Amino acid sequence: MNNIEQKLPAVIELNVGGVHYTTTLNTLTKYDDTMLASLFSGKFHVATDQGGRYFIDSDGEHFKYILNYLRYGEIPPTSVANEVYREASYFGLQGLMEQLEKCPAILAKIHRESFRSQFPGYDDAMETISDIICELSTQNKDITTEILVLLNPKYKKPNLSSFDIDHACFLKSTRTEKCAADIKIGPWESLIQDKQVVETIVKDLKYKGFSVTYDYLGQCDYQCVPPTGDDSIMHIIQSELCQKKFYRLTFHWWT
């Protein structure tokens, strides 16, 4: 008799987030490299509820799909793929995760995350947008709120040595009174266009429930002029412009 059999019963009564299940120790420890196998290895104390059931602080509603996978190798329906994928990740069920990653919903989620990862600062920018919106919502008396986003499509070494790569980007002429960017993203190495990035931002915001649109305001107005008297350069380059682009996000609160 091994240590697990000495410490834990063959039949296990569970309380998973308030939902009760009955299963076997063999089922819970079927795969060695999982959190469940570790939890019920006999090496750790497992909390119990008032009825003596072993308590797992997780989503009780979807735990049945975890058990069915352990029992039969059964893959859950695509309608709950996202929720079960989260639970499979939590419990370390790599095999179930790999199966679920073939589902369109999970595959699309992974692809979106991979796409976003190309843009340095994207996640931080989305968090900052949420913070700014929360702050402005207590101040703004209009039916819309605007945020300026500055995108730097790809880093390019300036042709002019006098080009100030640390300049403050600005717009001289714009339909909004704001000239400085609220959010900055980039540069990135891929060939993805800046419009695709801002459309991704808008889609993510809409997924969160916001009603938001965007429009392109123009390029940064900074330009560097070659030093006077350098005729050899003047024939090649008249001036060098900043490549960063300004977009405006408009949040609509009455639609």
3D structure, described in words:
This protein has 10 helices and 9 strands. With 255 residues, it is an alpha/beta fold. It has 2 domains: 3-115, Potassium Channel Kv1.1, Chain A; 122-252, no CATH class. The strands form 3 sheets. The protein has a 4-stranded mixed sheet with strand order 5-4-9-6. Helix 5 packs antiparallel against helix 6 (94-100). The longest helix is centred in the middle third of the chain and has 16 residues, at 122-137. The protein is elongated. The relative contact order is 0.11.
Tell me the number of structural domains: 2
| Average pLDDT taken over every residue | 87
Q: What's the order of the H and E elements?
A: HEEHHEHHHHHEEHEEHEE
Sheet with most strands: strand arrangement: 5-4-9-6
Please summarize the sheet with the most strands: 4 strands, mixed
Strand content: 15-25%
| Helical residue percent band | 25-40%
Low-confidence stretches: 1-5
Please report the number of helical segments: 10
How is this fold's topology laid out?
Blueprint: H1 3-7, E1 11-16, E2 19-24, H2 25-28, H3 35-39, E3 54-56, H4 63-72, H5 81-91, H6 94-100, H7 104-116, H8 122-137, E4 144-151, E5 183-185, H9 194-207, E6 212-219, E7 223-224, H10 231-234, E8 240-241, E9 245-252
Parallel strand pairs: 1-3, 4-5
Antiparallel strand pairs: 1-2, 4-9, 6-9, 7-8
Helix pairs in contact: 5-6
In short:
The protein has 255 residues and is an alpha/beta fold. The protein has helices at residues 3-7, 25-28, 35-39, 63-72, 81-91, 94-100, 104-116, 122-137, 194-207, 231-234, and strands spanning 11-16, 19-24, 54-56, 144-151, 183-185, 212-219, 223-224, 240-241, 245-252. Helix 5 packs antiparallel against helix 6 (94-100).
